[in-house]
Design brief:
six-stranded parallel beta sheet; Rossmann fold; 37% helix; 14 strands; globular
Length: 403
């Protein structure tokens, strides 16, 4: 298959590099944001996604065609086989033949996808415009995880000038400030908010809550998400109502999961906690529909895709002011937590437990309506809209980017 001229004539070809891509789902929001940005493009034919046949911490598990371009949703995807040298070579050849005008990298870290092209760009082996999305990886709480390794990597990037002439895509002004605090004021940044493909539940489909307060957590079981804080909070609550918490997600750190399971065993007799493991993405909507409150005491969320999914499916959210969803959470029957302390989370759960069934139902309706309002104010265009900001960076692309 000739890839050199495939696409829309006169339009820039875009190579998208991501370690994970749907049907992968354990990698969470970043790949959902990427999928939405491409799908909402007016010309998806010019996007070529190079990824792996893996999911987060689960190499080679995806049942997908490998080592070839396939058409998916109007754009092209190549799934490289994990750990196969010959497959890697084929992928690199395919990327070279594509001759992209723009390379979009969906992560700052990773030798195969980020570091390789940062080096190629620096030594002038590619003249493609390089657009890099750190996906919140330069936010302070994210940098606090394995800090030594990240400090060394960032120092090497500065010494060798790997980020010179690279354009950073961030999803909010807050993330832009984090990027500048780490990389300096000279870094080139495009601020373009993420989008979602979730349309939202019909208000008539929202189930009536029961007398049991049904809490839910969906996401990675990790320290930065505050799962241990949620469980510590449930050990403190003093409510006469029955409370159930269902936890769905995978844990990269087995020790952290063991700790959380130990905390859960210390909850009182009126609190029930169940760990269900990871859940397929197409099951998430139904889980949120049945829940009364999604509790997420996270330290940092670049976008918080899962918060949007909760609201879309009529599930109010309790989360700190660490996501772009604060206004929607407040309008959507939830609580913006002033801090991440177990006592704060505990007090919030107790307030939710005191609500009547009808009051909880009205809050579910408010959540769904808040998401609808969010969609009305979300700009369309996906990556097309974002790339329009590249014209000043690469004048040669200017005439194509605005067609």
């Amino acid at each position: 298959m000739k890839t050199e001229r495939v696409g829309i004539e006169g339009r820039p070809r875009v190579l998208v590099l991501s370690s994970f891509f749907p049907p992968a789902y354990l990698a969470g929001g970043p790949i959902r944001s990427l999928e939405a940005l491409i799908t909402q493009s007016n010309t998806p034919e010019r996007f070529w996604v190079m990824t792996s046949n893996s999911d987060l911490a689960r190499p080679g598990i995806l049942e997908v065609p490998t080592d070839q371009w396939i058409v998916k949703g109007g754009f092209h995807v190549w799934y490289q086989r994990h750990g196969h040298v010959r497959s890697l070579v084929k992928a690199l050849i395919a990327e070279g033949r594509l001759r992209p005008d723009i390379i979009y990298v969906n992560s700052l870290w990773g030798m195969r996808y980020a570091a390789l092209y940062l080096v190629l760009r620096r030594v002038r082996l590619t003249d493609s415009v390089l657009l890099l999305a750190p996906r919140g990886q330069l936010n302070e709480p994210a940098l606090a995880i394995k800090p030594f390794k990240k400090k060394v990597s960032l120092a090497a990037m500065r010494v060798f000038g790997l980020l010179r002439e690279v354009v950073m895509h961030v999803s909010s002004d807050e993330e832009a400030a984090s990027v500048r605090s780490v990389l300096g004021d000279q870094v080139r940044i495009i601020v373009s908010p993420n989008v979602m493909l979730v349309k939202g539940a019909d208000l008539s489909s929202l189930p009536l809550p029961t007398k049991v307060l049904r809490l839910i957590y969906i996401g990675r079981i990790s320290e930065i998400k505050g799962v241990h804080t949620l469980l510590q909070a449930l050990c403190r609550i003093q409510t006469t109502s029955k409370v159930e918490l269902d936890i769905y997600g995978d844990a990269i750190d087995a020790g952290y999961l063991t700790m959380c399971e130990g905390i859960a065993r210390g909850t009182g007799p009126r609190v029930k906690v169940e760990f269900h493991g990871p859940v397929m993405h197409d099951e998430v909507s139904s889980l949120f529909l049945q829940a009364d409150l999604f509790v997420l005491p996270t330290a940092s969320e670049n976008f918080g895709h899962v918060v949007g999914e909760a609201l879309a499916n009529g599930c109010p959210v309790a989360v700190p002011d660490t996501t772009p969803w604060t206004s929607a959470v407040e309008k959507g029957g939830g609580w913006v937590l002033p801090d991440r302390e177990p006592s704060t989370v505990s007090a919030t759960v107790e307030r939710a437990a005191k609500l009547s069934v009808e009051q909880r139902y009205q809050r579910k309706k408010a959540a769904a309506m808040a998401y609808r309002e969010h969609l009305r104010h979300t700009p369309e265009g996906g990556l097309d809209r974002m790339m329009s900001g590249l014209a000043p960076v690469s004048p040669s692309l200017s005439k194509h980017l605005h067609e």
